[in-house]
Amino acid sequence: MMNADEFYKNKPKNVVKIEQDRVWRYVVTDHCSGCLFVWYVFGGENSENLCETFIQAMQPKAERLQDPFCGVPVNVMLDPGSANTGHGFKHLNKQLGVNVIINKVGNPRAKGQVENGNNLVETQFESRLKLVRINSIEQLQGLANRWMRYFNGQKIHSRHGMSRYKAWQKIMPEQLIIPPPTEYCRELVLSKPEERKVNPDLTIDFGGRKYDVRNVPFVLVGESGAGKSTLREDLQDRINREGRQVVVIEPYVLAMEDNDQKGKTLKAVHIAEAILEAVSPNTSPKRSPEARFRQIHKALADSAKAGNKHVLVIEEAHCLPIPTLKHLKRFFELKNGFERLIGIVLIGQTELGQKLSENNPNVREVVQRCEVVTLLPLTDGKLQGYLKHKFERVGVNVADVLTDNAIDAIAARLTVTSRNKNQLQQQSLLYPLAVNNLVSAAMNEAASLGFAKVDADIVKGI
């Protein structure tokens, strides 16, 4: 205990002395619905407590039906305190794709809703605790959780005329982004996701442990002719050679476009039909969407019990409409207990990478669950190794067909230089299909001229 006169004599220093023994309140409020979230901590206002409060506010609650408020916001607004502007909180939000807005000094309207939220917590919850013995911060938080469920679920908000939870539940499914688990979010405060090479057995090594990634949705992006379809064919061939019990589901994408004006869109119902046809070919699909999706869930579960794995492969995925991309998340979340029932591979041109950008809020919930792999051109010395491999497959030494300066000329011929403002930019087109076509044309030209080898002059003349 500290005498009141002594405390206020040197208040800033004395606050620091007792902050570890005092309970501090954080209040989070949703701008649209007015939902309130209150979190109690020891240790005062610091970056660790701020991050933990924000993480807890975003997480789905144990009593989900009674307390539905959760999700990653698009923006978060705070006062310009040291904890609020610190590296940890900014880093967490950067990894989650949240835009941090720091209120300007002297702009009380910006924080009026938070101030009102603190007032509501103080007058309608904390004021009732005067005759209650609180033995731990966990007990206090439990009482606060119960009050939040009552207040947000029952009290009518004067602005929209509904309870706060009812207003919040008008959120569109594509707007609700469930955050990663609590422990993972805590890791994001001080670190960021790291790349790892996938082992042949579809595992990765991290932190001295192995993790199975065979069920992680996989997105393969590359220019036309980069070898995407070849990798798909290699996957199917490997499954056949190794005798793996993997059911490959490939919806037909003929005439598929991302809108109905240019062609036919591939919808979730078409994917469901393809899954049912591959997994249970003699089963007639149900007529209603609800019954049909329940039917494919059961079919996948029965097939998994028989020892099968399932992978959905969609080529030309850059033509998928945004709603279908978002619906793929629902297919990926089909489970039998804790076991996922289907993996997903999307194969498309560079437009697919643009659609799945982390800056696109419409697909953020999909992007957070994907591994995106981009097929790069044959630069940095890879061209010579590629040509050597291609010729060796037919028993020919590349040096007997191409001179060294011919290989350099191929690289130069398939590099485009353009001007962007005041700078020159180079774009490489050294993809397998383009290289194959150029080398074939050069070999035919050399043969017609009676040359023994292809040299740089022949390549330049193509």
Automatic annotation (TrEMBL):
Domain Integrase catalytic: 1-172
InterPro entries: AAA_22, ExeA_AAA_ATPase_DNA-bind, Integrase_cat-core, P-loop_NTPase, RNaseH-like_sf, RNaseH_sf, Sigma_54_int_dom_ATP-bd_1
SUPFAM superfamilies xref list: P-loop containing nucleoside triphosphate hydrolases, Ribonuclease H-like
Stated name of the protein: Secretion ATPase, PEP-CTERM locus subfamily
Molecular function as annotated in GO: ATP hydrolysis activity; nucleic acid binding
Pfam families: AAA_22
GO terms of biological process kind: DNA integration
PANTHER family: GENERAL SECRETION PATHWAY PROTEIN A-RELATED, PHOSPHORIBULOKINASE _ URIDINE KINASE FAMILY
Highest taxon of source: Bacteria
